[in-house]
Specification:
Layout: H1 5-20, H2 23-32, H3 41-60, H4 63-86, H5 90-114, H6 118-138, H7 141-150, H8 158-178, H9 181-203
Helix pairs in contact: 1-4, 1-8, 2-4, 3-4, 3-5, 3-6, 4-5, 6-9, 7-9, 8-9
Length: 217
């Protein structure tokens, strides 16, 4: 069953908005010529996720998945190259990037050479994509616990939270429409963690942790 064009467009727009939040990090690197306070691992894991879902979309011949993850993989690769260029410690960044490339080559070889049946290949790749996406959504739970301890949401991005909630909701509905559990299931944790973040923003407003400064006399 083909998804409604409006739902496909919503998935495309919301996911690209979520990927686009990394443009602020790219702008910061270009302006400061530094990678200070910018984490490399999210770029790397998101790139793996995009390329995996791109493969799933190609096998499934789903043009919404193909379009979204082609743009997403291109953006994440751009972020990685910018980080590598401005990072003073290039060796660890380069080693991680080469490890990513090796994992992708190994995965491509496994799914194309060792699994002959197209449906089996689609199912196993879908399972891998689902597990990887769920792990990405659940990985910030330690940061959420830290926010509760410190009573500060300074390390959270509200625009990213909104974009993640909309993207996860859109893809959940998209997967339900296609009756594809590999798309539906991994996006549910994205909705849950986004709701938790909204509650944290409400419970600990960003302005309340600013230090008090007396007005000059």
């Amino acid at each position: 069953m083909a998804p409604p064009p409006l739902l496909a467009a919503a998935c495309l727009a919301c996911t690209l908005a979520m990927f686009g939040t990394g443009l602020s990090d790219l702008r910061q690197m270009l302006v400061t010529k530094s990678v200070e306070n910018i984490q490399f691992l999210p770029f790397l894991t998101t790139d793996v996720n995009n390329l995996s879902w791109l493969g799933y979309g190609c096998l499934k011949q789903d043009w919404t998945l193909i379009a979204v993850n082609t743009v997403g993989a291109a953006l994440q690769t751009l972020y990685i190259l910018a980080y590598l260029y401005y990072s003073p410690a290039k060796r660890p960044v380069l080693l991680r990037s080469l490890l990513l490339l090796a994992v992708l080559v190994a995965g491509y070889s496994y799914f194309t050479l060792l699994i002959a049946d197209p449906q089996t290949r689609l199912g196993r790749l879908g399972l891998f994509c689902s597990v990887f996406t769920i792990s990405m959504y659940l990985s910030p739970l330690a940061d959420l616990a830290k926010i509760v301890r410190t009573k500060s949401t300074r390390c959270l991005s509200f625009p990213l939270t909104v974009a993640t909630f909309l993207a996860s909701t859109s893809w959940t509905l998209y997967g339900l429409q296609l009756r594809d559990p590999y798309i539906t299931v991994p996006n549910v944790p994205g909705i849950v963690t986004s709701v938790v973040r909204f509650w944290l923003f409400w419970r600990y407003p960003p302005g309340q942790d600013k230090p008090y400064r007396p007005l000059p006399a």
